[in-house]
Amino acid sequence: MKNLLLRAYSFRISLLLVGVLFGCQRADDTPPPQPLMPREKLVSVLADLHMLEAQVENARLSPDSARALYLQQQKGIFWRREVTDSLFQQSYRYYASHGKDLDDIYGIVLDTLAMRQTKLAPK
């Protein structure tokens, strides 16, 4: 589980860098897409996707098999959360263009993953 949090931190840093690049645009210039996924739903989907990524990585499959498994399981996550791939992508792009929003979202994602870790830790 330490690896999961470490990966989440490194992923967050890379996303922040992407956010900085998008931050060069004026955030006011980008209207929110319709429909826009609510932050709470995006947090739960991102937490599930990071857990999935850790599980697939720990499965030690070949890169092609790992990618196929990840994409298959990702579809399942989207289906359970009632989210389409395009809704997720456009919502994520919108929040990424607003660096502060994405930073807040990933702060909550990290808290969610840490809470899941404490629930899974042996007592």
Total number of helices: 5
Percent of sequence in beta strands: under 5%
User: Could you tell me the radius of gyration in angstroms?
Assistant: 15 Å
Give the overall silhouette: globular
Largest sheet: none
Q: How many domain modules?
A: 1
Model regions low in confidence, pLDDT < 50 over at least 5 residues: none
What distance separates the N and C termini? Answer: 15 Å
Written as H for each helix and E for each strand, in order along the chain, the element string is HHHHH
Helix content: over 70%
Number of strands: 0
Q: Which structural category do the helix and sheet elements fall into? A: mainly alpha
Mean pLDDT over the residues: 82
Pfam families: DUF4296
Domain DUF4296: 33-117
Signal peptide: 1-27
InterPro entries: DUF4296
